[in-house]
Amino acid sequence: MYFEPELECIDRAELEQLQLERLQSTLYRVSRNVPLYRRRFEEIDFDPENIRSLDDIRRLPFTTKQDLRDNYPYGLFAVPLREIVRLHASSGTTGKATVVGYTTNDVRRWGRLAARVLAAAGLTRDDLLQVAFNYSLFTGGFGLHYGAEALGASVIPSSGGNDRRQVQIIEDYRTTALACTPSYALHLSDVMDEMGVQKKGLALKWGLFGGEPWSEPMRREIEERLGVKATDNYGVSEIMGPGVAGECLEQNGLHVNEDHFLFEIIDPKTLDPVAEGETGELVVTTLTKEGFPMVRFRTGDLTHLVPGPCACGRTFRRIGRIIGRSDDMLIIKGVNVFPSQVEAVLLDIEGADPHFRIEIEREGRLDKATLFLEASENLFTDSMREARELIERIKRRLASELSVGFEVVLVGRKTLERSHGKTARVVDRRAL
Ligand code: DLL
Q1: What mean pLDDT is reported for the chain?
Q2: If you measure from the C-alpha of residue 210 to the centroid of ligand 1, how many angstroms do you get, rounded to a whole number?
Q3: Relative to the CA of 322, which ligand 1 atom is closest?
Q4: Which of 255, 327, 331 to mutate to test the pocket of ligand 1 (most atoms within 8 A of CB)?
């Protein structure tokens, strides 16, 4: 039930002392080793020596995704590359934007924190966890894999995709726990029905879902259809991937691993802390990361602090499920996509006029993204063949640069709605 009970149930006063010490050493480390932080601390005349309480963190500037882009690829690493044993990136970023690095200690800690999340979600060493997240630059697969190994459970690294084979493995290997995105879990359940699988006969007990937003009705549906107890877990690659926070079997908020991450919830407009329990943007400072420490990283994710202690006995505070984003980032099939990335691809394709609209819906259980693109003067063509070729070219580029497949539909000039002179770029019809 607990993986590290002495830490997961730590006395709050002791925790705060530990956080303060770790915060101070993180701030020392970044001010010595990361030019961006050194410069920013100098600008505000800040010396890590002067951190007296956890609230002092509010004096420090935020770190944003833009900072990561500006320092691509290795500018924010706090150790020489020789110390780094692993590189990852945020989902969707096949190329530029984010690269994060882990030292040997970071990888080991990542496994332990993911193991806590698994234990809180019901797993023990007797379980067989099928990890149907991709093993790639994306952190999902590896993170949960290490967690299961640290816990001593058996891992089935099936990775993402290949639906019928996933189902067959669940049946034949007698998988007891499944980790994937919540929408993929529902999709697999449909595939089981198509294949005529008797779900009652499966050994499945636990479902660990994360990587994309979902809802209570989705949880209930997954639980009923797959016969699992479903829990939510949260992570973001800039911080560490899965293992940042996870629900326990009370299913009422995600315990943040507070001995390793200091979190704040701020108003994304004023940047001040929100009142306790109100919704705001989650900001995270890493307390033990060596390779890629982050100070006040703005995740863009909207959540709230769940009031009061939890019946499970863990003393770590809980955040509510992520209900949206403070920026325009979309999560399509679990992959992060910014409309500006779509625009950049279109701009780059000769003749493509970036007047576009992205429509996202759920087809069956899975996300379907369609790009409606206005044909511009130079790509307007009577030739069906040329139009088809253009569409194929755009599809290929989007798939390879954004890691998400789009349907592409060319529409006539000036047919897309303009709102205040700007295209209403995203229509999200998904009901979670
Ligand atoms: O999605 C890490 C992860 C993998 C977490 C597998 C859990 C399970 P990124 O690719 O960097 O990392 O995407 C991070 O995904 O800022 C959220 O917007 C969203 N996200 C992650 N977990 C949840 C969740 C991984 N449980 C971005 N609920 C984050 C809602 C989530 N959104």
Answers
A1: 94
A2: 6
A3: 30
A4: 331
Q: Which of 64, 236, 294 to mutate to test the pocket of ligand 1 (most atoms within 8 A of CB)?
A: 236
Backbone angles phi, psi at 400, to 5 degrees: -80, -30
- Give the pLDDT confidence score for residue 390 in this predicted structure: 87
- DSSP string across 147-189: HHHHHTPEEE---S--HHHHHHHHHHTT--EEEE-HHHHHHHH
pLDDT at 381: 63
Residue where the block lists tokens 């299913």: 251
Q: Whose CA is nearest to atom 29 of ligand 1?
A: 236
Q: What was the pLDDT predicted at 378?
A: 60
CB atoms within 10 A of CB 215: 13
pLDDT in tens, 396-406: 999 999 999 99
pLDDT of residue 340: 86
What's the CA gap between 126 and 42, in Å, rounded?
Answer: 52
Q: Which domains does the chain have, with CATH numbers?
A: 1-327 (3.40.50.12780), 335-428 (3.30.300.30)
Among candidate residues 402, 107, 64, the one with its CA nearest the CA of residue 240: 107
- According to DSSP, the residues that pair with 280 across neighbouring strands are 303
What is the dihedral sign for C-alpha 254, 297, 95, 77? negative
Residue 408 confidence (pLDDT): 95
What's the CA-to-centroid distance between 365 and ligand 1, angstroms? 18
Number of neighbours of residue 15 by Cβ within 10 angstroms: 16
Distances (CA, A) of 62 to 59, 159, 244, 298, 397: 10, 34, 19, 7, 33
Q: Could you give the residue ranges of the DSSP H alpha helices within 179-215?
A: 182-195
- pLDDT score of 423 more than 70: no
